[in-house]
Design goal:
The chain is of the alpha+beta class. It has 27 helices and 18 strands.
């Protein structure tokens, strides 16, 4: 018999519909039931592509004895963290307060039924005691006994969490410093301190790409020489990531993170949000260095998106599971014999040498492809030219991809999340500009218009497509990343209707999310469901900080449209987190980017003229721009423009206006001096 999750739209929740646990989705009815029955809430938060979520489900939630304990003593609520990032953000923070350790998934947290305050928290618990961890059944019984026998302790713990949350809010409100340009230099210092000089990336295993930090380092590197230490550290890190096993070397796209320092063995889930960020990062890295590894990474992500992640309406699905046939990574693993049987006999030696098939197995008796050598080394060892090398490697990958397509596939999480799609739109629009690829822009534009159609309902934004069957109100990240995505698309192809949509999003950011007292933006809207805490984060995490990205987008839109209240809101957002930016710029990379553009306004270029003539200017100009620079190409006959743009009228030839902040230089009528100005 199925539980209440059978009626849910989330693939993750439906995966638990056949559990003997009486799971409920998060709802007022579930909270009321806990209060009515005076049972603590067992809140379990995870997501469909989470390997350890599946392990705990198989070990505990599918077990009748465990389920009996859960049903007897608790009201059990299951949450998809991708549907409810507000709950995940709040209770991950509570986990940190209670345990003094970072959380993760599955998140297992026990709440008081009266106020949903947490009193005990953990992540994965095994079904038997091991590695110093208590068995889940023992934990369930102990918590139940504690709740019945010592309610005062439960209340004290919940009160302590509530007081800690209040103190966090008070500290945020007491920020009195101004963001200092010294934070830009401190960012460089902290980046180099965290850099792994042996394997690239930041810190040690488990290693995440940390795209927001690398993006800011990349923006910094555009103003440095190739001998600069930050430039070299960034370039080395990106090369190691691109050729490592964290990238799917056969089918393109990147996995979630590496479990080792070498970027060799990943957790095999593929997330749309990660790949959207890396798409933009590697496109701009190629613009900086011209390294073919980076353009290949971009092409690989785009190919994977088109092949495996595109919905019928042009939006993109959320994630692919790490497991297939109940085994982590099975879909992606090889043996040398299988590879040799798939590809041309003459191609095998070079392919095997490059990707480690001539070495011992690197993952539980199988081989996961990891680039031990780059293309230059491959050509030298096998005495072949670059074109021949690439032809052989591409041919081998095509054969392996065809072979892999016959295997049982990992599960697809077919949610269409607004913020994650926005990150992909940004990545595709950036790649379209850098590589002059109209096909990339067509994917971005198709997705943008589908998101507007499916997620803009009743004059408000939804967190996921209405086609998913659940109307969840949008969060800050949805507004912030979608606004940035529109601005990126406008730089490739102007659309007054898209600008109008961007202005609506910006106005709602200021109406529903802004902290009117202290500046910056809350994660949830002012009319959102009342929870124990209204988070307002300054850090970049798996997602770039929505607080910072909202401010960056408002600043850019304000300069474009001439609306100073947008740029004022951006400056107040920076001021609200100035202490954090000054002290921990590496963790506030997106706010460091905002500090940079506010203190050092970059070029914004508006080009107007006959539509047919604009094509040539766009093709020459866009690939030359640095990440922080922007250009808009608007035909002379376009209407519905803000006054600040409408008054820029081209006469009988293409005309360009170069602006910094709200100040514009004299118009230019030839492209050569404009290109020289950009290069300076």
């Amino acid at each position: 018999m199925q539980n209440a999750l059978a009626a849910e739209t989330s693939p993750y929740l439906r995966q638990h519909a056949d559990n003997p646990v009486n799971w409920l989705p998060w709802s007022q009815q579930a909270l009321d039931q806990a209060q009515r029955e005076n049972k603590p809430i067992l809140l379990s938060i995870g997501y469909s592509a989470c390997h350890w979520c599946h392990v705990m489900a198989h070990e505990s939630f599918e077990d009748e004895t465990t389920a009996m304990l859960m049903n007897r003593h608790y009201v059990n609520i299951k949450v998809d963290r991708e549907e409810r990032p507000d709950l995940d953000r709040i209770y991950q923070g509570a986990h940190l307060l209670l345990t003094r350790r970072a959380g993760g998934w599955p998140l297992t947290i026990f709440l008081s039924p009266d106020d949903q305050l947490p009193f005990f928290a953990g992540t994965y618990f095994p079904n038997q005691p091991r590695h110093g961890m208590i068995a889940f059944t023992d934990l369930l019984q102990r918590i139940a006994d504690l709740y019945q026998q010592e309610p005062d302790k439960i209340k004290q713990q919940g009160d302590a969490v509530q007081q800690a949350l209040i103190e966090i809010e008070m500290r945020e409100a007491q920020n009195r410093q101004a963001a200092s340009s010294e934070a830009l230099l401190t960012f460089d210092e902290h980046f180099l301190q965290a850099h792994d000089p042996e394997h690239g990336g930041l810190g040690h295993a488990p290693k995440f790409p940390q795209a927001a930090i690398l993006q800011q380092a990349l923006a910094r590197a555009f103003d440095a020489s190739a001998e600069d230490v930050v430039f070299q550290a960034l370039d080395f890190s990106l090369r190691q990531i691109a050729r490592g096993g964290i990238q799917d070397q056969v089918g393109g796209g990147f996995y979630r993170y590496s479990v080792d320092d070498q970027w060799m063995i990943p957790h095999f889930e593929k997330m749309l949000s990660d790949n959207g960020q890396l798409l933009q990062l590697f496109a701009q890295a190629w613009r900086l260095t011209g390294n073919a590894l980076f353009s290949d990474a971009v092409e690989g992500i785009a190919a994977w998106l088109k092949r495996e992640m595109t919905s019928p309406t042009g939006t993109f699905y959320a994630a692919l599971d790490a497991d297939s046939e109940g085994v982590e990574g099975k879909f992606y693993l090889w043996t040398p014999a299988e590879v040799a049987a798939c590809i041309d006999q003459g191609d095998f030696p070079a392919f095997a040498w490059r990707y480690g098939l001539d070495r011992p197995a690197n993952f539980e008796g199988y081989w996961h492809l990891h680039g031990y050598h780059d293309e230059q080394q491959l050509c030298a060892r096998f005495a072949i030219d670059v074109d021949t090398c690439r032809t052989q490697q591409d041919r081998a990958r095509e054969r392996l991809l065809k072979r892999r397509a016959t295997r049982p596939r990992p599960n697809l999480d077919d949610k269409v999340l607004t913020s994650w799609n926005a990150l992909v739109i940004r990545g595709l629009a950036n790649a379209a500009r850098v590589f002059s690829r109209p096909d990339y822009f067509a994917l971005a534009q198709s997705c943008l218009h589908a998101i507007e159609d499916e997620c803009w309902q009743g004059g408000r934004l939804l967190a996921q497509s209405s086609r998913c069957g659940k109307h969840l109100p949008a969060y800050l990240d949805d507004y912030a990343h979608l606004l940035q995505a529109i601005l990126d698309c406008l730089q490739y192809q102007w659309s007054s209707s898209d600008l109008a949509f961007a202005l609506k999003l910006a106005d709602q950011l200021l109406e529903y999310f802004v902290d009117k007292a202290h500046g910056g933006f809350f994660f949830t809207a002012s009319d959102h469901e009342k929870l124990i805490h209204r988070p307002k984060s300054w850090q970049d995490e798996a997602m770039p900080s929505g607080n910072a990205r909202a401010a960056l987008a408002l600043n850019q839109l304000g300069l474009l449209s001439g609306r100073k209240r947008y740029t004022d809101a951006a400056e107040k957002a920076l001021q609200s987190v100035a202490d954090n930016v000054n002290q921990s710029p590496l963790h506030a990379a997106s706010f460091v980017a905002l500090l940079d553009v506010i203190q050092h306004p970059t070029l914004q270029i508006i080009v107007r003229g006959d539509a047919s003539q604009l094509q040539s200017w766009r093709g020459q100009l866009l690939p030359r721009l640095k990440p922080a620079q922007s250009a808009y190409f608007i035909a002379s006959d376009v209407l519905d423009l803000p006054p600040e743009i409408a008054d820029k009228i081209a006469a009988d030839k293409v005309t360009a206006w170069v602006c910094e902040g709200f100040s514009c230089r004299a118009p230019l009528f030839e492209i050569e001096p404009l290109l020289s100005l950009i290069d300076e």
